[in-house]
Amino acid sequence: MKENVKLGIFEASAALCSVLTFVFLFLPCYHEADGFSLNMMQIAFGNTKAEANGLLIFAFILLVVGVLASIALTVLLFLDKTNEMLTMILAIVGGVLVLIGGVILMCGIFITGLDKMISELGLVQGVWGFSIGFFLVPIFALASLILSYPCGLIVLHHKDLADEANVKVITK
């Protein structure tokens, strides 16, 4: 199997995880005992309990740019229209931006002060809590970074192969 196809499979998996990270922003991540819930998009862009937050909007932009970089690299790898330096740069940018954006958005409950409005004791007493989106976003953001790893190290891999060939020639 060609190297671009192998790398394309890894990067397609990373792109899928980054798209799922984006999709999971719309799942509830904060809930209260009375049935009120918020997702990460509502927390970032404002809701009835908190104003829009610039840091969370910036994290959302980072996440979108990371998703686009992962998708672009996947397409370039399958079309065989990329070189190793571009592959490395897009893989690192895509994986890191998705991870940073996902983690900052996960912390949105704490950044906006939603945890302080009812009190931390309310978490223990069950007045409010974390929902599924709070956990899935950072997990899939991390998975996206991990699956971008082979493409991110392609330059070093090729250098290692060249050095290995040079060592074999010298020792013979």
Structure commentary:
By secondary structure, this protein is mainly alpha-helical. It has a single domain, classed as Up-down Bundle (Butyryl-CoA Dehydrogenase, subunit A, domain 3). 76% of the residues lie in helices and 6% in strands. It is built from nine helices and three strands, in the order αββααααααβαα. The protein has helices at residues 3-23, 40-45, 54-79, 84-106, 108-111, 114-118, 120-125, 132-152, 154-171, and strands at residues 28-32, 37-39, 128-130. Strands 2-1-3 form a three-stranded antiparallel sheet. Helix 1 (3-23) runs parallel beside helix 4. It starts with a helix and ends with a helix.
Mean pLDDT: 91
CATH topology label: Butyryl-CoA Dehydrogenase, subunit A, domain 3
Number of helices: 9
In what order do the strands lie side by side in the largest sheet? Answer: 2-1-3
